[in-house]
Amino acid sequence: MPAIPSLGGLRGRGNGKPAQVAPPIPVPLSAYVVDCAIYVDGERQSGRWSHTEAIKEVRERGTGFVWIGLHEPDEEQIQGIADTFGLHELAVEDAVHAHQRPKLERYDETLFMVLKTVRYVEHESPSTANEIVETGELMAFLGRDFIITVRHGNHSGLARLRAELDREPDQLRHGPASVLHAIADHVVDHYLDVTDHLEEDMDEMETLVFAPRSSVTAETIYFMKREVLELRRAVMPLATPLKRLAEGYTRLIPDEVRSYFRDVDDHLTNVSERVAGFDELLTTLVDATLAKITLQQNTDMRKITAWAGIVAVPTAGAGIYGMNFDFMPELHWQFGYPLVMGVILGICLLLYRILRKNRWL
């Protein structure tokens, strides 16, 4: 939510002084906090909490954890949370500005993980679509007794995931690491959904490319290739962070949660193989389209050459008999003109038949 300038701070130019704008009104942190909750023994505690009250309550109890969800906070608003939870300034900067590749970093006793979210954009046909894959970002700060998620984009909401986890306290008893696993699993499941839709688009595109008189151009396939590349940039770099979490990269991930990360990594491997297959298929389709264009051009050139050869016969006859000589064959014979025209027509028909037989026409 952008800061709104005060109208009272505007001054006119009637008095000869330049207009001045008052400092922007600060936006409260609550405008960026989607949800803030305390979980004890996997159960969500009732009440509304600020981030300071929530972490104080958890640490006084000596059990449970805090889950805070933020949506596109700015530097000023997230700084209060960063100070309260001891978040590293470099990780905070990455969380605010986004546009990061998937990664996993450790700062003292805090993990910082970046995941790229994807959404399939519905369209009538891949050959006419303006966008197929839309991306966003999810960042997560994981500590011993807290997890803070930062969301960028309008399609990567976690409200439904939080509601599902609230109904499964057994999973949340493993602590904030179980939330990180649920988020990673949620993101990778969306990868699978997008690849399923993309596979249908690939089949349709392949059918269109090899259809007679296809209107699919190389530019259309390049567009599809760019969309697959967008998905690839989200999927491929995530493999290393998931493997590190599954292999005991930090004590913040309990042993019982690591096995779940291995399952997510298996699903990601499946997605990666399918995305790589899409890329190879599109490369093949580009080559096939260019080959069809080359073949069509060669066919057109052969037709043009064939008709030029046929037209050359009457042109030669007219050129020869158009010369001003008295002693030309059959020049003064009354059947000379029909004879010459018949010979020219016969040669043209013969050439047409030969070229047609050889499929030049």
UniProtKB/TrEMBL annotation:
Membrane topology note: Multi-pass membrane protein
Parts of the chain that traverse the membrane: 304-323, 335-355
Signal sequence residues: none
Cell membrane found in the keyword field: yes
Subcellular location, principal: membrane
Places the protein is found: Cell membrane
Domain of life of the organism encoding this protein: Bacteria
Gene3D superfamilies: CorA soluble domain-like, Magnesium transport protein CorA, transmembrane region
InterPro entries in the record: CorA_cytoplasmic_dom (IPR045861), CorA_TM1_TM2 (IPR045863), MgTranspt_CorA/ZnTranspt_ZntB (IPR002523)
Location of region: Disordered: 1-21
UniProt keyword terms in alphabetical order: Cell membrane, Membrane, Transmembrane, Transmembrane helix, Transport
Family affiliation: Belongs to the CorA metal ion transporter (MIT) (TC 1.A.35) family.
Name the record gives this protein: Magnesium/cobalt transporter CorA
